[in-house]
Structures are given as C-alpha cells and as structure tokens.
Structure of GNAT family N-acetyltransferase:
Amino acid sequence: MNPDHEALLALFDREMREHARPDGPGVRVERTGEVVRQVGAADGWNGVVWSAPDLDPARADAVIAAQVAHYEALGHGEFEWKLYAHDRPAGLADRLLAAGFEAEEPETLLVAPVAGLSTAVELPDGVRLRTVNDADDVELMARAHERAFGSDWSRLRHQVLARLAEDPDGFVGVLAMVGEEPVSSARMELYPGTGFAGLWGGGTVEAWRGKGIYRALVAFRARIAAERGCRYLQVDASEMSSPILRRLGFAALSTTTPYVYRSH
C-alpha cells in the first residue's frame, strides 16, 4: 500500500471506526476501551465497528465473550463484528469463528476523494434518476432492491423510513426509474463531522445491467456529496461493483468481512 493509501486508511479507522458516531435515530455508540460498538433497536444494525489495535491476544477471547453477553443481555438475537483485514491481533477471525460467529462474504473497502470523482450523470435512453422523498418512494426502493438482489428488504425498509422521518439531512435515497417502474436504487449515508459519506445499494435489475446505471448513481451521489461538503466517499464493495468503482477513481484500502453472531 502506498503512503497516501496508508494515511487514508488511518483516517478512515480513526474517524469512522474508533470515533464512530451513531448512524441513525435511536442508535448509540458505546466505547469500552477495547472495542467500539453500535447498539440500536433489535431490528436495526448492531455490532462491533472497531477493536483496539493493541488488543492483547491473551484477552481477545474474553473481549469477544463480553460482546456476546452484552448483546444477549439486551435481547438482541443477532449482531455483527465488522472485521477488517488489517485488524489485530492476528488470528482474530479464527477466534470469532470459535466463539460461534459465522463469516459472510468479504467486501473491499474502497475510498475516493470527492473532488476527484466525475459528477456527470450519463443515463441510457428511457431512464431517469430522482431522489427518495416519502414512504411510497421507500417501497419503490424495496421493490428495486428485492428484484436486483433477490433478498428481503424488510430490515432496511424500517431503517430507511426512520432516517427519512427523523434524520433526512443524513440520508439520500436515489431511484432509477423507467416509466413508473424502479430498475435500480441506491442510498448515501452522511456522517457529519467525519468528512466521509458512505455509498450503499446500487443493485440494478438484470434486464438493465451493463448500461451505465450504476456509474450514473455513483456520479449523482458524488455531486450531492460535494454540495454537502463531504471530502471522501466510502464503499464496502462486492466483487461485482468493485471493478467499476476502481475505474471511477476509488482506491482499495482493505477488505472487511462481517462475522455474524446469532443466538441459538
């Protein structure tokens, strides 16, 4: 990794993880000295976002067990330990697996300076973009997501509705429409005080893939990020989106794997 990327990764770790802010209404961030974790409603996202780089290997198993006990005491049947490839101590992934966590698909942490990104929105004929403004629009987002990814959007629906109602300045939802039908949706989470905004979603229904809609959604959100004064955009990218984002100017800084604990 070149020095610029090392500095950017250190900034990301400090601002977005060690000094994490609540990412929505009804959410709190707790710090124990050894970990930073997010706690929200049982149907929201709960998990460990940072562990101390000097976490003693002799203490690691006890720290993991303490997080399990903490969330179970709150009645949360599921939470995530968001592990990055550069996290220490070595072997933390194996310890999580031994404690009953399950690894999900790894993603690439990509970051780009907003000032270096194109904000020119180029769309195929018949497609238009518009922002999400109300509950009906959220249902269109859900429809696009479920058609694109084949997965249930019920948990995200709840979170997006809460953001739209209680923290509209911290959230941007975007729909790609063909007539009255949504063919793609995406969102941007703004993290005031960090300089970062996060890009999420961007799944496109199969018939409309390969036509530049994903790139247009990135450019559209980059324009809004620039207007809002954000310095960096961050994406946890899948294997499908990572090559597109790299071509647009994003740099790979690490990989991140969700380790999910589910009470039995």
Summary: The helical segments are 3-18, 57-73, 92-98, 135-149, 154-166, 213-227, 242-248. Residues 147 and 159 are 19 Å apart (CA to CA).
